[in-house]
Amino acid sequence: MIISRRGLLRTAAAASILPATRARAQNSTIKIGVLTDMSGPGRDVTGPLSLACARQAADECAQSGAPFAVEVLVADHQQKPDVGAAIVRHWFDEDDVDMIVDGGNSAGALAVQSIVREKNKVFVASGPGTSVLTGEQCSPNCLHWAYDTYMLAHVAGSATTAAGGDSWFFITADYAFGHQLEKETSLFIQQAGGRVLGSVHYPFPETTDFSSYMQRAEASGAKVLGLANFGADLVTCVKQAHEFGLVEKMRVAGLLMLIPLVHAIGIEMTQGLVLTESFYWDLNDRTRAFAKRTAARVPDAKPDMVQAGCYAGTRHYLKSVSAIGVTAAKADGVATVNRMKAMPFNDDAFGTGTIREDGRAMNTAYLFQVKKPGESVGPWDLYRTLATMPGEQAFRPLSEGHCPFVKG
Predict the structure, then answer these.
(1) What whole-number distance in Å separates Cα of residue 223 and Cα of residue 402?
(2) Residues contacting 296, CB < 8 A, separation 6+
(3) Taking each helix axis from N to C terminus, what angle separates 47-63 and 305-324, rounded to the nearest 10 degrees?
(4) pTM for the whole structure
(5) What's the confidence (pLDDT) of residue 20?
(6) Which domains does the chain possess?
(7) How far is CA 247 from the centre of its chain?
(8) For residues 161 and 113, what is the distance between their CA atoms, to the nearest angstrom?
């Protein structure tokens, strides 16, 4: 797809360029670009609430008395890597953007990461899941927040297999994220003594009817249906699994099931579902306080770990800018990222933690189970905690990532 400069400007304008604080001077303003899904299958799990979380972090920076202004821009990548890449290049070349957050799907994020490194800017990836971002294709300009495919696979694949779900069939979105999630989950299934009996890869994001894939899953005889997709596709798959009666024959595992999706599907259909997130709004007093602040911006919604990652990553970035100064931060993305790695993070969404040399934010991972309707006391009272896994255990060991710039 070829995008003209005029078309790209229309895209940015339609997506609303939103200032968090009014610029005082061009050289004293930090600009943050939220590259997200405002209209497609990932809108509910990223989109407007990812933007709101980034703006919340920017406003908190202003309230802290930081000696610089912050502008937050937003654009819709449309789930197309070339569109996302064109937006980011325009932001860097024409709009003096300093940092990209969220980042879109995995395929698009890899393209964005290349441009960010070329321009020596900063990329805080929260939306994409591929663990390649801190592996073979890692970049000294990139940090990966909230989750990745390794963490999802480790927690969900191992636990489900150990609990008796020892044969799997995958329905997988046909792009980098889906393939990586299926591959890594399969490894943990096999390590736990299970088997993968088959998989299908469907065109993403063009598919709306999954009936033929459901039939193939049922015919496989597998005990677990693994859904290696996200957003609206995941919602559709869960609903169609119910329509076809698969939930009575197979355990359905949504490998990237997030709270907006659980809420959208309804607790009647999702009760008992086991899933992994690194954030839950009702986990403790700090997470509840954070969710209350975001509710003022996006009522009747609670953030998931991706959206919370936009807040935490933006907040930590702005703290690092305060530490090294605006001029230094705008001049050298690698230096800014290195300062972020040197500083422990501490925020209401994820609590305290550190960032590893390869750019992996070491968030705690939680195994949650969706409550039964009789256990829930409100529309967003959906999870109970089954297990807690420290980031050092949940994420891939540094020695196994093969990040080129990591020594030793």
Answers:
(1) 34
(2) none
(3) 30
(4) 0.88
(5) 40
(6) 5-147+284-359 (3.40.50.2300), 150-277+373-390 (3.40.50.2300)
(7) 27
(8) 34
pLDDT higher than threshold 60 for residue 117: yes
Which value, to the nearest 10 degrees, does the dihedral of the CA atoms of residues 29, 318, 110, 136 take? 140
Residue reference for tokens 């008395």: 65
Helix (H) / strand (E) element for 386: namely strand 383-389
Inter-CA distances, 258 with 49, 142, 204, 217, 282, Å: 13, 24, 19, 23, 14
Q: What share of the chain is helix, strand, coil (3-state, %, to 5)?
A: 45, 20, 35
Q: Per-residue pLDDT tens for 125-180?
A: 999 999 999 999 999 999 999 999 999 999 989 888 988 999 999 999 998 889 98
Query: pLDDT confidence of 12, banded at 50, 70, 90?
Result: very low
Tokens at 370, concatenated: 């969706």
CA 70 to CA 319: how far, in whole Å?
12
Query: Does 13 score more than 80 pLDDT?
Result: no
Mean pLDDT, range 85-107, rounded to an integer: 96
Tokens 């339609």: give the residue. Answer: 14
Other Cβ atoms within 10 Å of 401 Cβ, number: 23
Please tell me the distance from the alpha carbon of residue 260 to that of residue 266, in angstroms, as a whole number: 10
**pLDDT at position 10, please?**
39
Which SS3 state, helix, strand or coil, does residue 91 take? helix
Of 338, 2, 89, residue with least CA distance to 35: 89
- Does the bond joining 373 to the residue before it have cis omega, within 30 degrees of 0? no
